[in-house]
Design brief:
The chain is mainly β and 761 residues long. The chain folds into five domains: 218 residues, Galactose-binding domain-like (Jelly Rolls); 94 residues, no CATH class; 130 residues, Immunoglobulin-like, CATH 2.60.40; 148 residues, Jelly Rolls, CATH 2.60.120; 74 residues, Immunoglobulin-like (Sandwich). Helices cover 4% and strands 42% of the residues. The chain is built from three helices and 51 strands. The strands form twelve sheets. Strands 3, 16, 17, 20, 23 and 25 form a six-stranded antiparallel sheet that branches. The longest helix is centred in the first third of the chain and has 18 residues. It starts with a helix and ends with a strand. The relative contact order is 0.11.
Length: 761
């Protein structure tokens, strides 16, 4: 039933695009760009592969996902804990066969020919066919580890042909072009465990460790299960209704056989495993037929067995599960456990969030609280209106652009109140403390199982020191927050300190850099506008717009749009003050998925524009398909998002932030800290012949990496090709008579030139 429902949803979305029903829509993500930026698929045989030795863990096992406890597989051949072994495909008696050795697994022969006396070469006949003697070699399978070896009967990889009327013996040797077996080798690298590996708990990386999807978690960080693999891509592309097992979360081997102090574990040791879980959060609710499953591994029987599962129902709070481990089949050295989810395999769908996994002895069924006072989320930005802004703009009013106070969210998961201790907020620059804000509230109680906001009032003297880096465009300050209590020692202390970055770049941002959904408009010609404001008295040059597009349901990367800028009209977009839809030289853009720094793609304006005060940036789309801009559900800037479906401007109905950032001209590049040169606009190009009837040559003054694009005057892209060097020939034989625009675009999207081309017939 669920597969049919998913298919109907997709068909409905396609129908809306076709008939052009005007609306705004929010949908699930098809990819997770955080994972796609940090993982690469690896394929191939065992040659040059790494085999990691997993250390065995001892009790207690605790993870609240505030820290990265996933095993990393990034060893290098030169690391001190890496050794290697080389296997050869062919060997005899333990000695490798020489390089170039090859064999057949079926019989090869010596063929002898002669002629019938008196008939000459018209009467060649086969006199004899004698099989080569076979031998045996050890053949190793170099495509799988562990390497297995089998003693195999083989024959030479050649046939001999001999004629009795010549003195040559044999006359001809024909070697097999594709021998069944040939000498080869594979080297495997073995990675030994290091002492620090004992802090790692998980052996796979399929789940998404994040702070973005849960609602009211017990601690900062959860493990999110969905329909995306470890690389951020769907598990199954074949059908929108594909379902099955998606993510796994598997522990290392655990010694539940022998106690650290001696003796064996028994049921009397009261070992319990507990965890908290939530469905949906800021993601999608699993259907009833979906499930989250917990399995235990028995080293005795070498099998996984399901010990708990939950159907897919809406659940807003985190629920704690307690499972006793008493069976002897599990009280063994080498015990493991794993979670897995069943659901839709086509995107970031059917969400489950797991928090605070604990495996320990001497527990009871009532030990279903964590005894922990912990941070729940990263601390907010100290900027009044943004998560980031240009450093040069901040310096114009370093005190007035900051918030007067902030709150950092925490949670007490103990079944009794905790007494808090004052803790300051420390400001660091390049690892040196440069300021701090004391926690001014007196010590008090945090009620049992309750949220508590750590409130900090920023004194009027607090600011980000503008004298630290006078000439830099981009700076990063670190803000450190800590928790402390004098009550019973807590189960976990690593979630008592968080460090967040306060970033100053060359752009303005409302979002936190991660998308939880995809936003789009379904109407041809629909306009999207995002409200921003420069500090009082600041006028600056807008040079580009950074946008994070995400894929959802359909790939619309070929759909065109125009960039636009509006002034303010009483709190909503007013006059259109800039558009790339120039009637003479229209410039269109298209969505780039998961490209650019931090998955943002910089869309360079063909002509820079000065702005001041309140302004709006956005686009006008040329088709009815949703362009699917990333939507951040954790920071609500709903009041600043507007759309126009053809009649008037409306405020969005969704709470969140668009992942769209206006970029301003700066003196230094943000990532290289070097002087930034002006965009190469209006470079001298030559087009000949122009007018043309069949083709023309575009010649540039120097070689570039980029593309040449041809548009008609309505903005439709008719042609695109890569530029290799400084010259390209464009075929116009399929174009109708008329005027066209030839655009040369650099690899980063910048417009280098725009020229009119006339086609005659």
């Amino acid at each position: 039933m669920k597969g049919i429902n998913n298919l109907l949803i997709v068909l409905c979305l396609l129908l809306f695009s076709v008939v052009g029903l005007g609306q705004e829509m929010l949908s699930a993500l098809r990819y997770n760009t955080v994972l796609t930026q940090n993982n690469e698929l690896k394929t191939g045989s065992i040659h040059n592969s790494f085999v990691y030795a997993l250390d065995t863990l001892s009790l207690p096992i605790i993870d609240d996902f505030s820290k990265d406890k996933f095993t990393s597989y990034d060893a290098d051949t030169l690391d001190s804990n890496v050794s290697d072994t080389t296997w050869y495909r062919l060997s005899t008696g333990g000695v490798p066969e020489p390089l170039g050795a090859s064999y057949m697994t079926d019989t090869t022969f010596v063929y002898v020919y002669d002629t019938v006396p008196g008939r000459g070469f018209d009467s060649i006949i086969l006199v004899s066919k004698t099989a080569f003697p076979s031998s045996t070699v050890d053949v190793s399978d170099l495509d799988n580890y562990p390497v297995s070896t089998q003693n195999t009967e083989v024959w030479p990889s050649k046939n001999h042909y001999d004629s009795l009327w010549t003195g040559t013996n044999p006359d001809l040797i024909l070697f097999e072009q594709d021998p069944d077996l040939f000498q080869d080798s594979s080297t495997v690298y073995f990675v030994a465990s290091l002492p620090e590996d004992s802090a790692k708990i998980w052996v796979d990386n399929f789940v998404y460790r994040n702070n973005d999807f849960p609602i009211n978690p017990l601690t900062i960080g959860v493990a999110t299960f969905d329909g995306l693999n470890e690389n951020g891509y769907p598990y199954d592309w074949s059908s929108p209704s594909a379902q099955g097992i998606a993510d796994y979360l598997t522990s290392k081997p655990i010694n539940l056989g022998t106690k650290t102090g001696g003796g064996n574990y028994t049921a009397a040791d009261s070992i319990y495993m507990s965890f908290a879980f939530q469905t949906t959060g800021l993601g999608e609710t699993p259907e009833l037929e979906d499930s989250l499953v917990l399995e235990f591994w028995s080293p005795v029987f070498a099998e996984w067995k399901s010990v708990w599962n939950s159907p897919g129902v809406a659940q807003s709070d985190f629920k704690v599960v307690m499972i006793p481990i008493t069976a002897s089949r599990y009280l063994q050295d080498g015990f493991k456990f794993r979670f897995k989810n069943y659901g839709t395999l086509t995107g970031s769908l059917d969400h489950w969030h797991v928090d605070y996994v604990v495996l320990d002895d001497f527990r009871t069924i009532d030990d279903n609280f964590m005894n922990d006072w912990a941070f729940q989320f990263p601390a907010p930005s100290l900027l009044e209106n943004y998560t980031s802004m240009p450093w040069e703009h901040y310096k114009t009013d370093p005190y007035g652009l900051l918030k007067s106070s902030i709150s950092v969210e925490t949670f007490n998961s103990l079944n009794q109140a905790k007494i808090i201790q004052p803790s300051s907020m420390d400001l660091l620059y390049e690892s040196v403390t440069v300021d701090n804000v004391p926690y001014v509230n007196s010590a008090g109680n945090v009620s049992a199982f309750s949220n508590f906001d750590m409130d900090y009032t920023l004194p009027s003297s607090f600011y980000f020191d503008t004298t630290l880096a006078q000439s830099d465009t981009c700076l990063i300050f670190n803000l450190q927050y800590s928790l402390s209590t004098n009550t019973t020692p807590e189960r976990l202390s690593e979630n008592d300190t968080i460090i967040v970055d306060q970033i100053f770049h060359d752009y303005y941002a409302y979002d936190d850099g991660t998308a939880e959904a995809a936003y789009g408009l379904v109407t041809t010609g629909a306009e999207l506008a995002y409200k921003f404001a420069l500090p009082n008295g600041v006028t600056d040059t807008l040079k580009a717009i950074d946008i994070h597009f995400v894929s959802s349901v359909n790939d619309v990367s070929d759909n065109l749009f125009f960039l636009q800028v509006w002034d303010d009209n009483g709190g909503q977009p007013g006059n259109l003050i800039y558009s790339t839809d120039d009637p003479n030289l229209p410039v269109t853009y298209k969505p780039y998925y998961d490209l650019g720094n931090n998955a943002f793609y910089e869309y360079v304006l063909p002509n820079e524009i000065e702005v001041s005060g309140t302004y709006y940036v956005g686009w006008r789309q040329s088709a009815s398909n949703r362009l699917n801009i990333g939507f951040d559900k954790n920071i609500n800037q709903q009041a600043k998002i507007f759309y126009n479906l053809g009649t008037s401007w409306s405020n969005t109905s969704f709470e969140g932030s668009l992942m769209m950032r206006p970029v301003f001209k700066s003196s230094h590049d943000c990532f290289l800290s070097i002087e930034e040169k002006d965009a190469l606009t209006n470079i001298e190009t030559k087009i000949y012949p122009n007018p043309t009837s069949s083709n023309f040559t575009l010649e540039l003054p120097f070689a570039i990496d980029g593309t040449v694009e041809i548009y008609d005057l309505s903005g439709r892209q008719l042609y695109t090709d890569f530029i290799l060097g400084n010259k390209v020939i464009v075929n116009t034989s399929a174009f109708s008579k008329g005027n066209y625009i030839c655009v040369v675009r650099a690899e980063n999207g910048a417009i280098l030139s725009q020229d009119k081309v006339v086609v005659l017939r």
